Amino acid sequence: MQTVVSGIRPTGNLHLGNYFGAVKNFLRMQEEYNCYFFIADYHSLTTHPTPENLHNSVRQILAEYLACGLDPEKSTIYIQSDVPAIAELSLLMSMNAYLGELERTTSFKDKARQQPNNVNAGLLTYPVLMASDIIIHQADKVPVGKDQEQNLEMTRKFATRFNHMYNQDYFKIPQPFNYGEALIKIPGLDGSGKMGKSEGNGIFLVDEPKPLQKKVMRAVTDSGPTEPNSPMTEPIQNLFTLMDVVSTPDTIEYFKDKYATCEIRYGDLKKQLAEDIIKFTTPIRERINDIKANEAYLSKVVKMGREKAQASAEKTVKEVREIIGIKRF
Ligand code: TYM
């Protein structure tokens, strides 16, 4: 059976981008693969969360994973820092990751721009830690959104380089994965770019219906089509991209026809979109609140995952140490 690994940083609540870019695939993959899904708390330290915020965010993502339908009996669900072997592998892998390639990574350049007073070494070596997360379980497939494509490219590069360096076929070379084929990017409601936790444009699974509806009704639009079948501007395409993931084909067709014949009223489109998003998020939101209140269950899940993830990770690190020449006397 093939192995799947993916993770999410605990930097806030899950939004629709996280759900449709990543979690939706996790749910289907856990039925078919040997899955490891984790909470990337080491990775979130690059932005210096307070200790309290970090802990609350980890609990939140854990509850959200479970509320979305991740099943600890089917998948190994764990917290990255519960598996110190990942940190060791990251150290070992960093010895053949080069400064130039790390500095050229788009996510490093973006972050360095976003937080100029905190360009820490963790930001630079982020792709090495991420590669270690993945190859430590010998993953075949990694379900992620489009924004992670370059990090996956780096993972493949580091794993291949290790194999060449030690003349071994040791690490599997993992593939980014989405059931819908191409990796996806869910847009925000601000007219351009992707939905993100830090972009201030997110629709969160925990959003209550009223504020959620307000967010959607405030989405950027344009002044409307003036000629039949005119091409859509980016803000309008974005609304349809969101509809694609939450609305029925009939609804989408109805509004596309209205657009094509210039009869569309963006207010109606947004109202329908908000309604469909609320229909989708409501049962998940309710489950999140229930699960978060069940401390004993959360502890049990974390313990189960920790043991399985540690066993798999420690096996790899033991083998890597031997390949490198770190041998017991
Ligand atoms: P993170 O925490 O930023 O996002 C988690 C997952 O959500 C996807 N995603 C999106 N997909 C589509 N549209 C969007 N607007 C959108 N926003 C976020 C991301 O692509 C990701 O799949 N570096 C990773 C965490 C990580 C990881 C790993 C992932 C650490 N180690 C190993 C996979 C394997 C990150 O920051 O994701």
From TrEMBL:
Protein's cellular compartments: Cytoplasm
Keyword rRNA processing in the entry? The reply is: no
Q: Assign the protein's first listed, main location to one coarse class.
A: cytoplasm
Kindly list the positions annotated as binding ATP: 9-11, 17-18, 145-147, 186, 194-198
Alphabetically ordered keywords of this record: Aminoacyl-tRNA synthetase, ATP-binding, Cytoplasm, Ligase, Nucleotide-binding, Protein biosynthesis
Cite the GO molecular-function annotations of the record. ATP binding; tryptophan-tRNA ligase activity
Q: Where is this motif: 'HIGH' region?
A: 10-18
Q: Which residues form a coiled coil?
A: none
Note whether Ligase occurs among the keywords: yes
Where is L-tryptophan annotated to bind? 133
Q: EC number(s)? A: 6.1.1.2
Could you state one GO biological process linked to this protein? tryptophanyl-tRNA aminoacylation
Per the annotation, the residue ranges of the short sequence motif 'KMSKS' region are 194-198
Q: Which reaction does it catalyse?
A: tRNA(Trp) + L-tryptophan + ATP = L-tryptophyl-tRNA(Trp) + AMP + diphosphate + H(+)
Entries under Gene3D superfamilies matching the protein:
HUPs (3.40.50.620), Tyrosyl-Transfer RNA Synthetase (1.10.240.10)
Q: For this UniProt entry, what's an example GO CC term?
A: cytosol
Top EC class, one word:
ligase
Listed PANTHER family: TRYPTOPHAN--TRNA LIGASE, MITOCHONDRIAL
What family is it from? Belongs to the class-I aminoacyl-tRNA synthetase family.
NCBIfam families to which the protein is assigned, alphabetical:
trpS
**What the protein does?**
Catalyzes the attachment of tryptophan to tRNA(Trp).
What interactions and quaternary structure are annotated? Homodimer.
Protein name per its UniProtKB record: Tryptophan--tRNA ligase
